[in-house]
Amino acid sequence: MANALIWFRRDLRLDDNPALQAALRAGQSPLCVYIHAPEEEAPWAPGAATQAWLHRSLLALDADLRARGSRLVIRRGDSLAELEKLIAETQAEALHWNRLYEPASIARDTRIKQGLKSRGLTVESHNAALLVEPWTVQTGSGDPYRVFTPFWKNARQRLDPQAPPAAPARLPEPPPRLAGLDVADLQLEPRKPEPRWDTGFWDDWQPGEAGAAEMLEVFLDGAASGYKEQRNYPDRIATSKLSPHLHFGEISPRRIVAAVLARRWPAAVQPDIDHFLSELGWREFSHHLLFHFPHTASENLNPKFDRFRWAKPDADHLRAWQRGRTGVPIVDAGMRELWHTGWMHNRVRMVVASFLTKNLRYHWKHGADWFWDTLVDADLANNTQGWQWTAGTGADAAPYFRIFSMISQAEKFDPAGKYIRRWVPELAKLPDSALAAPWEQPALLRQLAPAYPGRPIVDLKASREAALAAYSGAKA
């Protein structure tokens, strides 16, 4: 039986893994390898939070492989050079991997495929990350979509309700002498003298395929019913929280869709299910946009904003935003949730992004860079699309006049103040009436929360008016 290398990247699962299935269908003996080469993803090498998750995800994948009689062979270095070494050491006749869609990864993978194919090796890439490939969904004129609704109407028709292939029960053991590193050798976790800033992550997350499957099951049994409305409230368990598992490929979007469509939902719940599927559609849309417009990871999709008058960042104000010390409770709660858990509720992501890009009027890249380093679901396509949407510079962008009211967002979506009190505990003693805008009751704030900023770092009303004026000029 010929050996085939299965090159794992962000597809850290055995269930619905097309590269692995392709080797098995071809009668090849799969050898599972992971090559650590973050510099090849520059300028978007993985951030600190995603590296901490990756450590545990690799451990989980290796454990799953060992339970099936195999193991994960880990190497570090130039991907092509390491693959060539592995091919020589194993006499592999084929190489399979699942595609990545970021610009740097596409260029690297194309070079590797061309180089190895020219030497007579069978090299195949597969789709494991998306529901539909970016080049298959086009407008009537053959162009990529820039608006979500018609994109999803087209893409949704292509969804496959069939359950994808499950993980194989057994896999062959790699040659005993095939050397590899331990996961710890990659030094992905925070190291001394750094404090273990990731400790709080693991109260909320279980990296790996089993954790992803459990998260999906919990969501379908609970929060899926009522999802369309409840997902907007950050104080509730009302979202799937599958985004980091999707980012690392610990679960496939096809598996999620199949699981959703396999259930019989009451008619009253169907709008919730449709909305959840549309959120998967937004993920697809973001990846398709990045594929067709790769410059948008660092540049505006809408060129009208290339001359926009962004404010010069004040270092103290930027740090106050990053650390949740802006004096605006809903913003500070979100930024502290991010720091403690590596994740932030989507509604609050839009709020903190609006504060940065419109009230402070800082370039969206400052926010995107911070999220990239601190989110465990730091996905280049989603991160880029999210920030450009709020800033008004991207596809389906929020209109320039849509500047989130920090006060009304808190009052509407955290009416009992549970979210703010959890993440900004120094405000816990304030009455509900003072939580959204405590600076409006300065005496009470000084008495009950003296450690909290006495006023926001920027006047919300004046900054809103200044942003409207600046954005009006850009649109004109």
Automatic annotation (TrEMBL):
It comes from the Bacteria. It catalyses: cyclobutadipyrimidine (in DNA) = 2 pyrimidine residues (in DNA). The keyword Cytoplasm does not apply. SUPFAM superfamilies: Cryptochrome/photolyase FAD-binding domain, Cryptochrome/photolyase, N-terminal domain. GO terms for molecular function: deoxyribodipyrimidine photo-lyase activity; DNA binding; FAD binding. PANTHER family: CRYPTOCHROME, CRYPTOCHROME CIRCADIAN CLOCK 5 ISOFORM X1. This is Deoxyribodipyrimidine photo-lyase.
